[in-house]
User: Fold this.
Amino acid sequence: MKVLITSKSFGHGTDGVKRLKEMGLEVLYDYNELSGADICIAGNERCSRDFFEAAKNLKLLCRRGTGIDNIDVKEAHKRGIIVTRVASVMKEAVAELTFALMLILSRKLLLNIEDARNGRWGKMMGVDLSGKTIGIAGMGEIGREVARRANAFNMNIIYYNRSRKEDVEKDYRARYVNIEELMSSADFITLHLPLGVETMGIINADRLNLMKRTSYLINVGRGALVDEEALYYVLEEGRIAGAASDVFINEPPVGSPLLRLPNFVPTPHIGSATIDTAKKMDDAVVMEIDRFLKGESNINVV
Assistant:
């Protein structure tokens, strides 16, 4: 059997490719060989109807990641192709990045570091996280990890989700609110929602204008959750204190005016980019392929 690796991250710093070969698989990297592949390990690239039409022999598509908004799952199912994704293993890394970005913004770390490097000792004042309200949009596995850390930081927790999570409310003294109250009440708003019809552009101009002038927005979910043009204007005009994003509508965001703003912190989609998490993700993909080859049921089927 042949496996085509289109993910740019699979096998980087791990033994993932070696293990595939040990299973007796022929490993391909050339997208032009898609028609002959039985298995595909996909990253963030678009797997549309055209993709599946070209993948004439494809039986298993393993998404090396959590989000599946780049995959036409219905088209895959129509063709009898199994689609899996990586679940759970990224939650700690993404939650840690969320807090890293919150601390960068709240303590003006980038500006203070730049001043220190240039011999300036101005000590720009920041704000504490302790005692502030965090608004978590999306209380899935990552949102829960963020809530756990926010609780340790002595933050007040409110959250928005399609459904209430009473265990989270009990464990972390969190309060369930609608999206408008979350935007207007929180000092730090963190986005962890999946991208879909209901959430596309959910953080629009009207909702950004609900935010307090002293509040911060952190997006580690999907770029298209946020109206980037509207975000630029509220930041440029000082209507909110700052924002950070690990994800963008177009990646890389070449030419985005957001990159010019001193109160905006961009990172290049590094939510899961740790050595530990990379190994866990590759292990999860290899496990799904191994189960498939053995005729066993896959675990994280979409």
